[in-house]
């Protein structure tokens, strides 16, 4: 039961994040007011004044959405074209990716590559901790399924 709740929560959160990426790919500006302020808020890389290309942003949205579906596939037995061992490996990989990304938010190297405000502050307060929680969610799903 806990694994299904965790898997559902991961799917919901990552689906919202995927929709945000799709929104940005099609020209949405929130939470910025123009492209430069959006890039500084959600990417934060040094000298970046524009968002990444729309095609790349759509690809990221798709990957995030699929990452959100994988825990549900893992715990619910939803028919999948993927072998169970590949789903398990994907879950382990995603747990590691989210945990590492969460930890990176607090390292000087990552902050040096993404120093723009407000991204730098938002990353330490929200983005990094959210990645840690998602990574822990993947670990819980793996451990309790």
Number of strands: 0
Q: Nearest-angstrom radius of gyration?
A: 16 Å
Q: Provide the low-confidence segments as ranges.
A: none
End-to-end Cα distance: 9 Å
Helix-strand sequence: HHHHHH
Q: What's the pLDDT, averaged over the residues?
A: 94
Please work out how many helical segments DSSP would assign. 6
- Overall, the morphology is globular
What does the main sheet amount to? none
Indicate the percent of residues in helices: over 70%
**Strand content range:** under 5%
Structural class, by secondary structure, is: mainly alpha
The number of domains is 1
Describe this structure in words.
The chain is an all-alpha fold and 145 residues long. It has one domain. The chain contains six helices and no strands. It has helices at 2-25, 35-42, 54-76, 84-104, 108-113, 119-144. The longest helix is centred in the last third of the chain and has 26 residues, at 119-144. It is globular and about 45 Å long. The mean pLDDT is 94.
Descriptive keywords:
145 residues; mainly alpha; globular
